[in-house]
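Obj: model holo form, ligand = zinc ion.
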Amino acid sequence: MEVYGVKKIRKSDIERALGTAVTLYKESVTSLGECTLALVRNGKKKYLIAKGSGPMFDELEGKVTDDLKICPANHANRLVLNTYLPYTKPTTNKDGRPSIGLGDRLGEATPGHIKALGNKNIFPYFAQQSIRELNLTGRTFDGVIDDAAYAVFQCGYTAGWGADGDHLKKEEEIKTALRSGATMITLDSSEMIDNTIAGLPEKELLVRYGNVDEKTRTFYENLYKERTFTFGTLSLTLDTVSLMKDILIYGKALDYIQKIWETFPEFKANEAFLEVSIDETATPTDPKSHLFIALELKRRGVLLKTLAPRFAGEFQKGIDYIGDLAQFERELIIHETIALAHDYRLSVHSGSDKFSIFPLLAKHIDRPFHVKTAGTNWLEAMHVVALTDPSLYRRMHTHALARFKDATAFYVVTTDLSKIKPLDKVSDQQLCDYLKDDNARQLLHITYGYLLQDKDEKGAYLFRDEFFALLGKEEELYQDLLAKHIGKHFELLGWKK
Ligand code: ZN
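Output (holo structure tokens):
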């Protein structure tokens, strides 16, 4: 926006007022009536700088020095920013763009994600965190959305963005996420899914099925038993055995999803999009089970926007897809057919770095879909460390090795630590090669909580302060690495415009 001379914010004035050097983000400079606003950074801290007068100037919390108001980039000021500059507030994907969950595990990745997006017609979820990630990083939903909103303001990104409360299981968690401003909720009903059924022999299956009350059984059987559903060239029959299994596996989860849908009017009002995730199960989602779930949710009036089945193969964190690509492709076509017929999109979880399946998604899904990346921005941050501070990298890598076993309690990986080259055999210049090695990537990927939060015996963080100071200093490099890495995702997904 045009900045009038009298209210022009000068870097030198800010530095005088703060008594220290700052980075002034040029794209942030915005005039609103009588007030000009900008974002600056000093080390790890960001500040809003206001100059002029008017309601926004008055409502911001801060200290007036000379003619500038120096305001901390905190939660209260983020809400003021949201009121006066609506593009800084998370929104839903109203115009149905292809969408990607980027998340920003560190609160430092969003400017790089914005760089990766360029002018592409993609709807980004800059904020996307699960409770697991919040716990492991010591953050809150409010904090995550605050960081993303400030980054959006910093870069002058006005194209709209979302916030996803990822893999939420409890009503209370959903309530908190929505109150913080989440515009998408990924409901994880895995605790209601019965993982003991899939492999049962038929005799035991019949016993278990017999324990379901008769009214429920008759109800479902009248609706679905041995019925064939046809969608174009695809025909699926809900045979007796599949139906029995699906009622046992998903019955409780379906009741729960319906309850959540009915509890939060935000979904019906389209203020937040509902995703149902059934990806954290013991076995891949059978296409017939997907059909049963789709039919049931529709019958119950639950209008989800996206559904994440568990696809065949493995979607481990930080590395490419492991599995049979031909089987993935066959099942993808069926899952997409069912999703299309029931008016929601497919969502692919743990989608970062799954480069070998992206061309298949592009080929077989003839409409927008959703991909969630999972913390790949953390690995790019470690890439920055490897490139710019070998000593810090070596210490973090060593600590990751020591904490790896603990981290496997939270993440399923097939990492072989013995295949990771010992640090003393690697020169400083070669440290970044670890980021090209699947085993080392997973080692670093799953230990982030310990690397960020562990403290020494005096109670000081082992790495956190040094790590964030470095990311702040190397912010341009971090942006470039993210733009390149995430850009490769867009390219292979066929999201070129
Ligand atoms: Zn998932």
